[in-house]
Amino acid sequence: MYLTSGLHRSLQRHPEKIATVSGDRRQSYAELIERVSRRASALHKLGLKAGDRLAIVSQNSDRMIELLLACWWSGLVAQPVNTRWAPSEMGYAIADSGARAVATCSNMLTIVQAIDSDMPALDWYLYLDDDQEPEGYINLEKVSHSSHPMDDMRCAADALAAIVYTGGTTGSPKGVMLSHGNFWSSLVGRMVEVPSASNSVTLLTSPMFHVAGLSRMILQILVGGTSVTLPGFQPQSVIELIKQEGVHDLMLVPSMLQMLMNTENFDPEYLPSLKRVFWGAAPIALPLLQEALARFPAVEFVHSYAMTETAASVSVLSIENHPSFIQSNRFRSVGRGTLSSEIRIINENGEPVACGTNGEILLRGPGIMKGYWRRPVDTEKAYLDGWLRTGDVGYLDEEGYLFVTDRLKDMIISGGENIYPAEVESVICSHPSISQCAVIGIPHKKWGESVHAVIVFKAGMTASEEILLDHCRHVLSRFKCPRSFEFKDSLPLTAAGKVDKKLLRVRNQSVQKSI
């Protein structure tokens, strides 16, 4: 269960098959393995040894894929760094991991050079692009070219493969330790539910500093598929690459899907190769899902549930493009547990609850993280009797389908009542004028918190606060309805494509307007 095993398998089965596509560059599996083995040798030549951490500050590219694989080929621990963080945040994560080297590319160079944090373990700055390296940097391409290929170390399943830092929504970011076996088990368990073939072509829209993009790339390597990279999500570029490269699979968050369908002159008929669209990270509004199913009648839509601590999906749901399924409650679930995951729901006393009862979601299985890097106390708090505490609220139905209600930390407590923002958002988004909505709790002198809705209208449409409130009151209990509204052109997003509710709460601490 080592992450480079797929390279050897592909070399035997289809060495000339295209492994990566990045801009004008295309390389076969034979070429990829040659470059990975030389890069691994170059890293060892510099002085890096098995177990050392290598921080990578790069947008998605074939060069980033090569370096990640070279880390695992040579026994290093990859630390992909969030490229959307400020230099100070990057510096914190690199220093915290004790990385001995940081690798970057030309379009991230200015940000890396702006890092002024104390990073005492750092010995080398590596440059990933083919052009002239800046002063103080080692050109990894040149060193690799002069290095002899080294044998794959074929790391043990429990060997640390990556440290992926969380977004730091509460306190400083924590480094999630994921082993070769964690990734392998989670991905194979997911493939039992939703198979991936060696002829699959995937467009990596999610950044590989995020576990969704990283695990998707690893899956393509394991099965011997093709990975097409894109530096960042641009709807028009996505459409062009799907057509040009015959992309089969696409991984999006709901906001990306909305942007894709809102692109001028977008016509799904021009994308005949597209077979599946995966989404996760955030719930999807029913109107958006219905629109997507109507415009992509031949495409399978798959919803998955995962978190950084699980390496990959722990549950999946394939959406049936049929009115009866959409009208059922089941489409709102995140599916059933994969082969490599076990799910339990507990109450506030840590006791399992009956089917249909809300509680905290716990997870168990071989894909669960090794722990938080250098944070034994946080690691201990993350578990309950061997089960990972997700911090998510949800319930299981009688057939084992998991329904995620909301995040515990996002739950609003108003006048002693628990209010789940996702439920309110779903109702608001069912109004025909609404494109996007985020519901948060803001301070209230009397009730502790009140429900505040941040609204984005569809192009050319609008609605008054009174109309939206009346719409909510037809479905929701009065205490769940928003007491204040805010209208914006867009919602802030995190690097993972989720709505940044932390930022919204900070911006709205002073909002006290009540209806």
Tell me the layout of helices and strands.
Blueprint: H1 5-13, E1 18-22, E2 25-28, H2 29-46, E3 53-57, H3 62-74, E4 77-80, H4 87-97, E5 101-104, H5 109-113, E6 124-127, E7 138-139, H6 140-145, E8 160-165, E9 175-179, H7 180-193, E10 201-204, H8 211-223, E11 226-229, H9 235-245, E12 249-252, H10 254-261, E13 276-279, H11 286-295, E14 300-305, E15 315-319, H12 323-327, E16 336-337, E17 342-346, E18 359-364, E19 371-372, H13 376-381, E20 383-384, E21 387-396, E22 402-407, E23 412-414, E24 417-419, H14 421-429, E25 434-444, E26 448-457, H15 465-473, E27 484-487, H16 501-507
Parallel strand pairs: 1-11, 3-4, 3-5, 5-6, 6-7, 10-11, 10-12, 12-13, 13-14, 26-27
Antiparallel strand pairs: 1-2, 8-9, 9-19, 14-15, 15-16, 17-18, 18-21, 20-21, 21-22, 23-24, 25-26
Helix pairs in contact: 1-2, 2-3, 9-10
Walkthrough of the structure:
- By secondary structure, the protein is of the alpha/beta class.
- Among the domains are: 180 residues, Rossmann fold (3-Layer(aba) Sandwich); 96 residues, ANL, C-terminal domain (GMP Synthetase, Chain A, domain 3).
- The chain has a 9-stranded mixed beta sheet with strand order 2-1-11-10-12-13-14-15-16, with helices on both faces. A 5-stranded parallel beta sheet has the order 4-3-5-6-7.
- A hairpin with a 2-residue loop joins strand 20 and strand 21.
